[in-house]
Each structure stands twice: as C-alpha cells, then as structure tokens.
Amino acid sequence: MARVRSCAVDAPTAAALAAAVRAGADPRDLVEQALARTAEVDGALGAFVLVDAEGARREAAARASEEPRGPLHGVPVGVKDLFDVAGQVTRAGSGVPAGPPAARDAAAVRALRAAGAVVLGRTRTHEFAWGITTQSEVRGGTRNPHDLDRVPGGSSGGSAAAVAAGLVPLALGTDTGASIRLPAAWCGLVGHKPSYGLVDLTGAVPLAASLDHGGALVRDARDARLALAVLGVELAPEAPTAGLRWARVDGLEDDLPDGEAVALPEGVAEVYRCVQAPEALAWHRATGRWPQHAAAYGRETRGHLERAERITEEQRAHGRAGREALRRWAAALFARVDLLLLPVATVPPPRVGDDAHLRAATIPWTALANLAGLPACSVPRGRDADGLPRSVQVVGPVGADARVLDAARDLAR
Asked: In CA terms, which of 188, 279, 397, 410 is 20 to 30 Å from 28?
C-alpha cells in the first residue's frame, strides 16, 4: 500500500490550552505555535483562506495583559469564511463580488472573543457552503489531514482540517445538510450540530436560513460542550448514558449500543432539495448576486442555482409537506427512544476529483436532522483498514443537546 501523506496530529484540546493559560502559559506563545504550525503545513493542506497573523499577535498580547475573560482565554481559534470578522471581507468561498469589509464581528465571533479566544484566521468553505467537498476552482480547495490526496468533507472543510492538523483546537462551522458533521467524520473529529436556533447566526452568510445551524468542530465532546457554552447555550450537566433507550439503523458496528431497529423515511434527500434549493436561490437573488454575477460563480454552485430555478411550486409544496411528515416521524420515534444511531456517510473520504454520488451517500443520513431541527453529532470511532477516520452519528430530539453530547463522550474512541 502506498504511503499516506498525512499531517493529522493528536493535538491538545481547547479546554487543555485554556487550562494551560490559567496555569501561566502565555497566550502569545500559543499564537506563535499556531502560526508556526500553520506555516509548516497549510501550504499543502489549504485549511485557511486568510491568516491574520498581525491581528492574532495583537489580540494575544492583549490577552496576556488582561485578567481572564472567559473559558477560552488566550486560545487560538478559526472562523469559517461565512462569518463576518470586523475589518475583513466575507467572501464565502466565492469569487462573486462580496462588498466592503465587515463593520463588526458576527454574533458567534463576538462570543468567542468575549470568552477570550484569539481569532487566528478565516477557514475555507465550499462556495457559499453549497457542497460537501470544500473544493473550488474559484477559491481553491482543502485537503484531508489524514490523507492529503483526499477531501476533508464540507462545507466546513477548512475548519475541520485546521483542527485535525493541530493548527487550532476549535473552529466555527455551519451545517445546513451535513456541513459540520461530514467534515468532522472524515477528519476524525467531534462535530455537533445543535438544535435549530440555539446558536445565533447573525452576521453569517446563509445557505438556507430555515435549515442553517451554527456550531464548532473540535477534538472531543467536552470541547463541544465548552464551545456551546461560549456560544451562549446552557446545557444540563454531564450525565451517564446507561439506561438510555436507543434506535439504530442496519449496517452499524456491532459494538455500538443495541436498540430498536428503524429505517429512515424514504425520500429525505428529495424533500431536502425541494426546501433547501429554493431558499438558497431566493437569497442569492435578493442580494443581487444572481443572476447579475452568474459568470463569477464556480461551475458547481452555478449549476445548483440553475437547477433551483427549475423547481416548481408543486415541488416546493412537496418539500413543505415532506418536512412536516419528517418532523412527525421524528416526534413519534423520540416518544419511544432517547437517541438514534446512524451513519454520517456510507463511504470514506474520496480522493480529490472523485466525488460522484457523494450526496447520495450522505444527505439521506444527515438531512433529517436539519429538516426537523434535531441535535446531531458526528463521533469519531477510530480508523479503518486504510488508516482513515471512522465515525457514527448520534441524533436526539429537539433540545436534547446535552444527551447527544453525553452519548458522543461515551461512544468516541
């Protein structure tokens, strides 16, 4: 077998770095280490579209002279290039004209800074978050830290790669259909999509607002809890998972919890398409991007928008009705069980350029949680025979984010 080119590392968690600062570590040293690691590997990895070294050094110096602001004091973080950062242009992974630099930070970025975090830079996203590989002929692509010939997943692929390669311990992401969970799964991380509406997305470029969820990509479930707390979400304390009632689909690992066998409803991907695409098209039209700047879009996103224009009112009605049916299905399921286990994707990360049929291997498993607003988390489960990360997805009822993260803690390996 050919040697895998890898830059994935077992780096400290955000909680560990924050504890080191509380014990006397200098935030300026943490930032210099992050900048050095980024300079070492990111030329091949492509996790960042912008590294703000001057700004990060200035922010770290301020943290070094302050009393601790919060639980991420002095910790370097990454921000997906959908979130506004004051003084920077939010390009959303696109060559479409983006307007002036942001006047203020997005709400999630403000929350990170208020907790003492230091923003190292902007991580790469699939163009306008409308894709699952984080590859683009317009703005370049990100590689998977576990095998640089493969994709990291998307659309938060830059954030996942930055954490898995040890550039930062935490990076912001968004998830409209799989975009936190898939890159987390393929990069060996914890990726938690909170219940709908828990994380404030003010100041973030939307893909489809009724499906968009904000969150973070991190190394373990306790960092996921920490990230949620920083982003303003109060969770119940950690609890044991013994005695929980599980449901699971066929084909999962034998060493996962036993439970009720379930089959997901058919047609999830089509319902998702009929909801997501019209919402996305409406935003691109309303902002004057489409079709005025059609030529500036990458081929993939331009194709998505062209297909969205052909969705009929009958199909939109099918999407609305199908979404309500899925919500009812989920409510009935979670009246009987506490948690659902299913894949994030049924294939490992493909090689760059070999991405045919990826949506069919992902969206039927992940879009239910977006359509119904459910908390869902990708949990790392070791490596496969080729050394690539394996994962499982945990889904719970609306509001059961603490329970989902307790399960992620206990299932990770």
From this structure: 188
